[in-house]
Amino acid sequence: MSEKVLMKGNEAIAEAAILAGCRHYFGYPITPQTEIAAYMAKKMPKIGGCFLQAESEIAAINMVYGVAGAGKRVMTSSSSPGISLKSEGLSYLAGSDLPALVVNVQRGGPGLGGIQPSQSDYFQATKGGGHGDYKMIVLAPSSVQEMASLTVKGFDLADKYRMTAMILADGTTGQMMEPVNLSEVEVQHYEKPWAVTGTKMERPHNIVNSLFLEPEELEKNNFARFERYKQIEENEVMVEEYLMDDAELCVVAFGIAARVSKNAINEARKKGIKVGLIRPITLWPFPKKTLLAAAEHVKQFISVELNMGQMVEDIELATRCKRPVTLCNRTGGMIPSPAQVLAAIEEADKGGQA
Amino acid sequence: MVVFEKPKSLCDVPLHYCPGCTHGIIHRLVAEAIDELGIEGKTIGVAPVGCAVMAYNYFNCDMVEAAHGRAPAVATGIKRADPENIVFSYQGDGDLASIGTAETVHAATRNENITVIFVNNAIYGMTGGQMAPTTLPGQVTQTSPYGRDVNHCGYPVKISEMLSQLEGPEYIERVAVNNVKNIRAAKKAIKKAFQNQVEGKGFSLIEVISSCPTNWGLSPEKALQWLEENMIPYYPLGVYKDRTAQKEAEAK
For testing the chain A interface, which of B61, B74, B96 should be mutated: the one with the most A CBs within 10 Å? Predict the structure, then answer.
């Protein structure tokens, strides 16, 4: 495929996963990510892969755990309530240092919530979700092209650091159609000598395990894991800066909120307001340095989110509260309009904190 | 001449099980079956949460420790990753018949080509003797101190009977390890459960009626006697499903 093809965001994730060498997919039906499973169900049997509809989200993530333990690329996808169910498995994957890709096409919550787009699993994705000291690499695509490229990147990072990478998308990016170029997929390969592939009577047995009854040993493992997390924070931050060079105001937004914000920023620029955008592509690791640097020259940050402001405190922490951070948001499946974001920018420009 | 030795598929380490516990016997039977079939190098075991949680340190083959009840799903993943490998799970009653019921039933109904060793001793051992899904009516445990009241918390789950109603699974047998005769039968069943997988026949589950002297509050010998007098009448031994045998019988 050398030219662009028109695809839904969810389909782009599925095709990119296959191109990244993923041959095992396990999932359980939930809106609005169904196209991923449907695509896998169609494709996997034709290419010698395995699509299996699990009896539950819990079973699906544990099947992922099995394949990951056996050293192969594997994924599951779901939407918010399903990710809550998978959270036990996410903790075990972390505790056993297993690589996997998990997709969350977010919908409104809490509870059964709704089926419209949302970003209200930001805390769950970036702060843990399951129990214990652990992190996931969290990637936030804002276009169908990024749904594909970040999926490939997610598999590579997961293998490189032996951990879960999560695609934190939303119902909009999942459902919308855009042209995608899938011709330039480059895949990294990582050796997995720790995998349970059978000893072939040639090596001592491998054990995939998250139980360490000696607290000293568990602490040692957690320290080692967080050393790796530190490397990730050093080396893997991805962020887009838009019109930030002369910006006096800074909108911070990820995913679909960033696209809405760009429209508003373009309108504001026409009115002579010096406003730019910082778009975290990795939500963990969070682009702390970029935000701290921006705090030197902007007078206010405006966080645009499809939730009750879950990213605000990360911006405040990253900028050491040097500048005020205000919130422009909708929640429950609603999306802020460019006009709403523009109004927030204009309010901030007047010197008010909106 | 060596006439009796430790199976090669068992690691040469001390087991943590309580004195008189039958897990040691069942570990040995599993290891003997793996040795005799010559499959150690391509076998991957899945340990449960419960008393056998550290089974990953005891079997010499590659091992994975699963979350509570999830072993059949984890085993499914491992098997699907490389269908040439032999995959077994080793689970207790709380793990398999309570928190992991869904995973058990669905692995069975998919006829997942794995081997499940289900150790039923009617109690949660590791956490100190709470009521299990298989605790007998009237049986006293830490969380049924006046005896299991079936009007309050229902009846024991009969896994072999339940699963044998499904179209999916290949082989379901219930055995016990309370005496030499039963142990020999258990060995035969366990070996067959692995042999079925080697032959690609599908899901085999062996329910092993076992004892828990510590949490039953009985001596090892009395516990085996209690097993014989109480467990076996409630959980009758025998083959509950054998699709291949069924087909052969129908063909005649």
Answer: B74
The CATH code of the domain that includes B215 is 3.40.50.970
Q: Which residues of B touch A210 (CB under 8 A)?
A: 65
Q: Has residue A172 been placed in a domain?
A: yes
- Asked, for residue A354, whether it belongs to a domain, the answer is no
ipTM score here? 0.96
Question: Same domain, yes or no, for A109 and A135?
Answer: yes
Task: Tell me if chain A has a CB within 8 Å of the CB of B16.
Answer: no
Give the Å distances, CA to CA, from B221 to A285, B18, B124.
59, 14, 20
Mean pLDDT, chain A, integer: 97
- Burial state string for A254-264 with b = 16 or more CB within 10 A and e = fewer than 16: bbbbbbbbbeb
This prediction has a pTM of 0.97
**Among candidate residues A202, A235, A268, the one where a domain is terminated:** A235
pLDDT band at A1 (very low <50, low <70, confident <90, very high): very low
Of the candidates B246, B174, B241, the residue with the CA atom closest to the CA atom of residue B208: B174
Q: How confident is the model at residue A200 (pLDDT cuts 50, 70, 90)?
A: very high
Task: Name residues 31-50 of chain A within 8 A of B (Cβ).
Answer: 50
DSSP A249: E
Range of the domain at A62: 5-235
Would the CB atoms of A69 and B53 count as touching at under 8 Å? no
